[in-house]
Specification:
- The structure is a homotetramer.
- The longest helix of chain A has 24 residues.
- In chain A, 41% of the residues are buried.
- Chain A has 6 helices and no strands.
- By secondary structure, chain A is an all-alpha fold.
- Chains in contact: A-B, A-C, A-D, B-C, B-D, C-D.
Chain lengths: 123, 123, 123, 123
């Protein structure tokens, strides 16, 4: 994931150039990330699920920008906390595979702790 | 960003194996993404900014998992909407560079539309 | 709205008894409120709109708890910022009536700044 | 809480006049509520906790508007799901009193399930 590491460096320079590092505590970055996630939700809130699958070019362009903002703040946070996102995602996929075994969850959207397994506390 | 494209394929298989594609409309995925973003916020909500910069190994591990969940839903959404995240991020960085020129914003956290520029509306 | 003012006092006592006031800065309370709002979203994220209109008693009970949590943090924030919620809501309804005149918006979910009006900046 | 019930009626009329009821499924309203909660977070994201306790009149006015928006969507949802908010809040306060007994939690911001109690799972 050289590209992500490269993006992290690029975004660090962007922040440095603007003296923004002082605002970028992990706490503040988590807030900014959730705000961008909600701006993404806002694009979809009055659409039906079907409409959300058939966005106009203008709608898609707005959605793309909000997705990029989420990615940007996620990478800023990863920089601040020294997290390698590729590694983190791969570890989480492994955990999820254990939490949601195919034979138990197929076709169901229930949360894993609704299957009566003995898993540890939720996330 | 071959790694991200590879992750997208891996996550698609994960969803296919569980017959979860039916739940993964862009609308629903945007909701799930924002829920994960809030679980990240929850890790920080009662911490000071300074504490958020000095997480214990347990706290960091929990934060990493939530960051991975955000990344996972973002990639699921990217799959559903045929968005290339690397391209989207690069385009957004270019836009941001225009919105936040170094000489105007250095050391300030104001939103770009608070600088009196002539930029179009934003959200 | 004597009841809301009474609730505010009751919640202040609850926090005082637990020495929680130290954590309840407006910044932190806004985070907690948004986390609860997302727990509400989580109840609905994999439901269709129709299913969300026909909750089981268990689902409704969970939703009610999350709604109460949102209300509680909103009142905590109102206490900290000396905001009278009834007054704030009434003022906002008046603003909204100007932003969304019936003859312009009937049957449409567009945001007011998509109607080509000359309104001031958005919120 | 006659005032809240009166507000609910007022907001129902506002929606009826604009033919907005069609968009106001519980699912969609939960999304809109969380978007407003994030607009509230946005007001605070780059402020220190101390700054968040000393808002300028302009900042406070913006915050008030967002708080009102959260309250409005919460009441809309309460209307759609036939929830009496005063009752819901009082029930939740009773639950919280059991989950967070004064002698166990005083001065701590830990989540109740971090105290080693026997409570059932929570989110």
């Amino acid at each position: 994931m050289e590209e992500l590491e490269q993006l992290k460096a690029q975004l660090q320079k962007f922040a440095d150039d603007r003296d923004w590092d002082q605002f970028h505590s992990p706490k503040n970055l988590s807030m900014a990330l959730s705000v961008e996630a909600s701006e993404l939700v806002e694009c979809f809130q009055w659409l039906t699920e079907e409409q959300s699958q058939n966005l106009s070019p203008e709608q898609l362009s707005a959605v793309k920008d909000e997705m990029a903002d989420v990615q940007i703040y996620l990478l800023r946070l990863a920089t601040k906390l020294n997290v390698n996102m590729l590694e983190a995602v791969n570890q989480k996929i492994e955990k999820n595979a254990l939490k949601y075994p195919v034979d138990k969850v197929k076709g169901s959207s229930k949360k894993y702790n609704q299957y009566g397994s003995n898993d540890e506390a939720d996330s």
